[in-house]
Specification:
Elements: H1 3-49, H2 53-57, H3 60-82, H4 87-96, H5 103-119, H6 124-128, E1 131-132, E2 135-136, H7 143-156, H8 159-172, H9 178-183, H10 188-201, H11 205-214, H12 220-233, H13 251-257, E3 270-273, E4 285-292, E5 295-300, H14 305-315, E6 320-322, E7 324-325, E8 331-332, E9 338-343, H15 352-369, E10 379-384, E11 390-393, H16 402-407, E12 410-417, E13 423-424, E14 427-429, E15 434-436, E16 443-447, E17 462-464, E18 467-469, E19 472-480
Antiparallel strand pairs: 1-2, 3-4, 4-5, 5-16, 6-9, 7-8, 9-10, 10-19, 11-17, 12-16, 12-19, 13-18, 14-15, 14-17
Helix pairs in contact: 1-4, 7-8, 8-10, 10-11
């Protein structure tokens, strides 16, 4: 199931649970209404007897109902009060609990917000009100949402940012929400104590004392004891891990992702490419030069809307969680957050239309690049959802695995953008100060190895900015080194 489909399913479950909660509340309200009517009816004789109790009770038509009422009614009322209502709704909720997100799902959602915050330099106060990278969204975070983000930063040891999230959480916490927050076991004191701990970790005991006195209402003696406790033994309430820059998106990468990024002026050109292959004399492509060293170009309007729609239908059922390959030929589940699929594969319907489409894309790769694509090497389809990203990396593998032994390393990369991303999702080359927006029908092509020596070109490091609004759907193809030995021989020895 793709990320988008999974989240749509969660929306459906939430709607079902809210409807179930409303039905449960209605059942409770019916019971409350019945109890209130009972109380009103039981109180009526007492109102009539007020001020004339002796005369009232002297009438057997009044004393008899009172004795009968006290003897038999209150036992039945107690039974009615103890009878649980809404059991059907409670059972429904218990059944649905197994379909709700797991801890890993909450962690992934939290990290997606965290990447948006880092990559686009968003302040917690802005993110909480839906302002991201200069764009105002019709969305916001609650006080409890902000508290969860604070615990994430606290666990990373980023106490400064955690304190900012906690400050926002306190500002969003209304006294009218106390009863609702108590259901979620969320108290103002929880936020304040963590904020005090952050100030202590940052070496600001004065601010920690102020928070404890004003927010938690501790006495001076209680504050002294709490401060000493935290300073000596710490607090095990929060799961903590070592904070290091290696887990962050690099600052130079983030700066280019942001809308404030200003590219350096160049004298590069846009033109119709008619020379790469003879076919282009009949059907040239619009080509935009992005860099000459390393060579990076973008082709526009390569695939038609119909071809993209057919690709989307072909790809969608195949997508599942995908990861980047690490240096030890294992998988890194933090460098890349996307759904992916290699195709064509056994799950691809071998229809005439699909075969023709795949052949068309293989030919396109050759026409655009002038190089030979390996028909045995599958394409990789990728879909990035909210917060989906790919940390800066190289496409050349630079390691001995079966693939490089048979085909050589990845000489060049070709990436088809299958949709336009509303906000985020750009491809960034940090060393070149280059950002390529994700636009439908565009194809990005670059060399990973030096054109003459086939040395690794470190300036080809690139990454995918986190997606803020929408999804990013693409198709990647890599051109292998050994397949080009008669097309593009190396002229200088490799270093």
């Amino acid at each position: 199931m793709s990320v988008t489909t999974h989240k749509e399913k969660l929306l459906e479950i939430d709607l079902e649970l809210i409807g179930n909660l409303e039905r449960y509340a209605n059942k409770l309200q019916e019971k409350i209404d019945t109890l209130q009517r009972l109380a009103d009816e039981m109180r009526q004789p007492l109102i009539e007897a007020e001020g004339r109790q002796e005369e009232y009770l002297g009438n057997p038509l009044n004393s008899f109902p009172l004795v009968r009422h006290l003897y038999s009614d209150w036992g039945l009322v107690e039974e009615f009060m103890a009878n649980r209502v809404g059991q059907e709704q409670i059972d429904f909720l218990k059944e649905k609990l197994s379909e709700l997100p797991l801890p890993k799902d909450l962690s992934a959602a939290t990290e997606a917000i965290y990447r948006i915050e880092l990559a686009y330099g968003v302040k917690p106060s802005d993110l909480a009100k839906g302002l991201v990278d200069g764009v105002q969204y019709d969305a916001k975070l609650s006080s409890l949402d902000c508290y969860v983000m604070a615990t994430h930063h606290f666990g990373l040891g980023d106490y400064s940012k955690a304190s900012q999230w906690l400050t926002v959480a306190l500002a969003l916490m209304n006294s009218s929400d106390m009863k609702i927050n108590s259901v979620f076991k969320y108290k103002r004191s929880d936020v304040s104590l963590m904020l005090a701990r952050c100030f202590l970790e940052m070496g600001s005991e004065t601010e920690a004392r102020y928070v404890l006195s004003k927010e938690v209402n501790m006495t001076t003696k209680e504050i002294d004891i709490k401060i000493e406790q935290l300073q000596l033994v710490g607090d095990d309430s929060y799961q903590q891990q070592t904070f290091g820059p290696e887990i962050l998106l690099p600052e130079e990468f983030n700066a280019i992702c942001q809308s404030s990024h200003k590219p350096k002026p160049t004298r590069l050109h846009c033109r119709y490419n008619t020379t790469t292959t003879p076919f282009l004399r009949l059907a040239p492509f619009r080509m935009e030069e992005l860099s000459l060293d390393p060579y990076i170009v973008a082709f526009h309007n390569v695939l038609s809307d119909e071809e993209i729609a057919q690709l989307d239908r072909l790809i969608a059922p195949l997508l599942k969680k995908t990861f980047a390959i690490g240096p030890d030929d294992d998988y890194d589940d933090t460098a890349r957050t996307a759904d992916g699929a290699w195709f064509p594969n056994n799950a691809s319907p071998p229809t005439k239309e699909n075969i023709q489409l795949i052949d068309r894309i293989i030919n396109l790769v050759s026409d655009l690049t002038g190089l030979k694509g390996d028909e045995a090497d599958s394409f990789q389809a990728v879909r990035y959802g909210f917060g989906g990203h790919y940390t800066p990396h190289y496409d050349y593998l630079n390691m001995s695995i079966d693939q490089t032994a048979l085909y050589g390393d990845r000489l060049a990369s070709v990436f088809f953008y299958l949709n336009t991303v509303k906000h985020g999702g750009a491809t960034v080359f940090p060393s070149l100060n280059l950002k390529v927006p994700a636009e439908k029908g565009k194809v990005l092509f670059w060399y990973n190895l030096d054109g003459e020596s086939l040395d690794f070109d470190e300036n080809t490091e690139h990454g995918a900015c986190p997606v803020v609004d929408g999804i990013k759907l693409g198709l990647a193809s890599w051109i292998n080194e050994y397949d080009q030995m008669f097309i593009k021989p190396n002229y200088r020895p490799r270093k």
